[in-house]
Amino acid sequence: MRFQAPRGTFDILPNEEDTWNQVQHACFETARLFGYRYIETPIFEESGLFERTVGEDTDIVEKEMYSFEDKGGENISLRPENTAGVCRAFIENGLHNTTLPSRLFYYGPMFRYERPQSGRYRQFHQFGIECIGDESPDVDYEVIKIAWDILNTLNFSNVILNINSLGDSQDRFLYTEELKKYFSKYLNDLPKVDQLRFERSPLRILDSKEEVTIKISEEAPKTLDFISSESLIHHENLIQNLEQLSSIDEKFQYKINNRLVRGLDYYNKTVFEYTSDSSGPQGVLLGGGRYDPLIKILGGQDTPAVGFAMGIERAVNELKKNIDIEKNYVDAVLIVTDEDLRIQSTQIANSLRSHQIKTIIAPRKSIKAQMRFANNINSKSAVFIGKSELEDNKLSIKLLQKKSEQIDIAMDDLNQLNKILNS
Ligand code: HAM
Fold it and tell me: Is the pLDDT of residue 328 over 70?
């Protein structure tokens, strides 16, 4: 019997480690530059937490949660996202008593039972930030700018920010009524999924991927025409900041997208997504927005907040398009030319490693086979260990990436070797 990774999951293999680290490093360092600090919450929470926040009628809660009853009879879900968990932790640990806003970031696996397709997995990773305790549009801008700096650090080209405002819950109610009126005229033309959405959550029709619906939605009422003056001022203030950014950074592009509503219930005012030119779900690199009511819904004090989460797999896939990920992962392979010198070879290998030279000892095979091994794994060098080298207290080295140039290095000059190999 051969086992396979469960559908919608995958293994991260050694040759992908560098790319994953690169993405994680860009995220963590950018967040830290803006004064954000790491938070980690459990991978599973009480199911009710997601039902109350993400929303019972959303696809995520309705169809995609990995939920089960544990041995103590508790209803548990693997987290489908982490804003709810971070807010739960914020309240539970009394973070509202610290200086606000709390600037937090997280990284880890999330779980959604989705139909697997390119860019959509059942276990995936998110990096996210949450800025909790400031209602001003300045922090909406800060969060959007952090995301932009990360994408820029990773050298993504053709990225565009889509932005919209949903207003507050009262605005949303009025808007939803208006939307219902509009779509009721086309109800028979809408595909089944969107007819269902019409009944349960009309706003989601705007999110539809069905071509007919997209066409009909073009003339649908716009949220921005229904939001309160307070929400509108908030939105306009943010747009001024974005205008300013695009005037100083020609790569930065944004678009007000009236169809952007996002698939989670907790948002108010600002919602946004950054998309790349890849098609389908793969193209949405990250998404977020403001969620002022959420902490109060969870029993905390009324505390406004804003954040985003980025899909790490999507960023990694985007990067893989541009780089050759089969790089050297080892600096030196020791070629043992005399089998009696195996013990000395392990000591030499350890000396190299103590000078930060990544070293592997070739398998016990002929010298030719050991050389083939060094070439096959793309080692930067082959280091020959023989009797004469040991007598002279030196290493004889072939630089495999530099036309097999041959050099000798004294055993007490390994720093020099490190410089040569990593120059
Ligand atoms: P979300 O839009 O559901 O928002 O997910 C954010 C990002 O996670 C997406 O843009 C995408 O890159 C990635 N993602 C989502 N589902 C999958 C999947 N099945 N496979 C691969 N990648 C996926 C949230 O999760 C909110 N908590 C974001 C947020 C934070 N809002 C405020 N603060």
Answer: no
Cβ atoms < 10 Å from Cβ of 61? 21
Ligand 1 mutation pick, 36, 79, 81, 317, max ligand atoms within 8 A of CB: 81
Average pLDDT over residues 234-246: 97
Cβ of 207 below 6 Å from ligand 1: no
Is the CA virtual torsion 293, 295, 299, 300 positive or negative?
negative
Q: Which atom of ligand 1 is nearest to the CA of 288?
A: 31
Confidence band for 326, pLDDT divided at 50, 70 and 90: low
- Go through the domains of the chain in sequence order and give each one's CATH number: 14-168+227-320 (3.30.930.10), 332-421 (3.40.50.800)
What's the 3-state SS for 177-227? HHHHHHHHCCHHHCCHHHHHHHHHCHHHHHHCCCHHHHHHHCCCCCHHHCC
**Residue 265 CB–ligand 1 contact under 6 Å:** no
Helix, strand, coil shares of the chain, percent, nearest 5, are 45, 20, 35
What confidence score (pLDDT) does residue 402 get?
A: 81
How confident is the model at residue 422, as a pLDDT? 87
Q: Is the minimum distance from the CB of 204 to ligand 1 under 6 angstroms? A: no
What confidence tens digit (pLDDT) does each residue in 329-346 have?
A: 799 999 999 999 999 999
What is the number of the ligand 1 atom nearest to the C-alpha of 314? 12
Q: From the CA of 401, how far away is ligand 1's center (Å)?
A: 41
For residue 156, how far is its CA from the centre of ligand 1 (angstroms)?
18
Record the pTM. Answer: 0.91
